Amino acid sequence: MTGRRRPSPRPFPRASAAGTAVTACTAALASLLSACGSLPGTSGRPGEKEPLTVMTWAPVDTKATNMPGMPAMAQAYARWVNSRGGLDGHQLKVLTCNDRNDSVGAARCAQRAVDAKVIAVVGSYSQFGRSFISPLEIHGIPYIGGYGASDEEFASPLSYPVNGGQASLLAGNGRQLASVCERVSLVRPDTLQGDRMPALLNTGLTDGSRRPAHDVRAPEDGTDYDDAARRALEAVGAPPDGTGTGTGGAKGAGGCVTATLGERTDTFFDSFRRLQPADSKVRIASVLGSAGQALVDRTGGRSGPLEGAYLTGWYPVASDPRWNPMRKVINDHAFGDNRIDPADPGVQTTWIAYTVLRSVVEELGEQGTDEITAQAVQQTLDRGDRAVDTGGLTPKLRWRSGDMLAVPDYPRTVNGLVTYQAVRDGQLVAAKQGFVDVTGTLERPRGDG
Asked: Considering the entire predicted model, what is its pTM?
């Protein structure tokens, strides 16, 4: 056609060389941000701080002791703090892991923590300290507020225990029973960890001028404890059939049986109840974690076999108002998760452990530290410029060398307090007001049990 200009196939003008360079640079920057999420040292949003990743592990769905409430409590805690802006402005991300009650599972959980570059492992349970501590130590990851189920938690320089572990519970239980029992049978798991229990209980008994306990080994994952119950009753003078070799008269008057079988304590007391003579005067006992309010309720409350039992714990009874902040978090952020029992010492330990973490992060924030690392957390805990206030659930905590108690085999112990509790009218109540300091008992030399 003539007289008309052919329309250009480009509806837009060509960019200049300078414009092309700017466009390319912008595209490259956008690509970098898209690939990485954000530039190093930023959170992706102006003014936000880096999120913090931690891990909480525990055995779940195993044949022995299970602690599902600990990771569940950790997740509820994260939802709570994140709804309030995070820990000093850092969103908290909690990873969980099932250690499966075996050494391989514990090692795998530790490696997952290392791979995820967590700043700490917080409020966890595992009997296999040898398997999980080494990977954490190699990578400088602190272990804050473990349950105290392994010796390594009280020996590793990167472990920061909030209670006295099994050592304080058993020594305290021995002290508690020494005031009411002339003879004691200890029913405990036939494991390496269980082999440490008799000497610890006996330290408390002898501190109260009582003879050592009769040691009754039992399978950790047993389904029938009739044999263990029979041996325990005979040792305190109340054989099941009334014709055994037990001594002491009056069907075991002055005798006590204490069982520390973790989750299997329930099964043991079922056997004990069936074999105990009708006119038996044997008293029973345990430690929190092996027995508690949930077990009392399941076994009949005030009419059950645990009525009158003596128990030793680390913390105030679950009905104490000092637990109200934890209960509110559970009510508001656990969404009816039935894994979380406010009376469970595992749940309580997790709450206290995360209280420690929160205190450390806030202290680092006050110092102007926005990038929180495992090394920064460790250094802050070691320096101990500020003691951690747990609201009276424990003494104020810090882990300087001068704060460590002189406890043989447990040099990282900083809290030697326990509580004496008893079951009355189907409820766990304080048998003695306030804390009982068993530091002196723990610091005494022990035999082999």
From this structure: 0.86
385 within 8 A of 408, measured Cβ to Cβ: no
E strand residue ranges, 89-227: 92-98, 121-122, 143-144, 159-160, 183-189, 214-218
Q: Which of 214, 209, 175 is nearest to 198 (CA)?
A: 214
Query: Based on the domain organization, do 156 and 203 belong to the same domain?
Result: no
Label the pairing between strands 143-144 and 121-122. parallel
Q: Of 350, 351, 293, nearest to 318 (Cα)?
A: 293
Q: What percent of the chain has pLDDT above 70?
A: 86
In this structure, the answer to whether residues 342 and 394 fall within a common structural domain is yes
- Bridge-partner residues for 183, per DSSP? 255
> Does 144 reside within a domain?
yes
Q: What mean pLDDT, rounded, does the chain reach? A: 88
Residue 41 lies in a domain: no
The mean per-residue pLDDT over the stretch 241-270 comes to 78
Q: How far apart are CA 215 and CA 446, in angstroms?
A: 16
Among the ranges given (10-24, 228-242, 259-273), the one the predictor scored with the smallest mean pLDDT: 10-24
Range of the domain at 138: 52-164+318-415
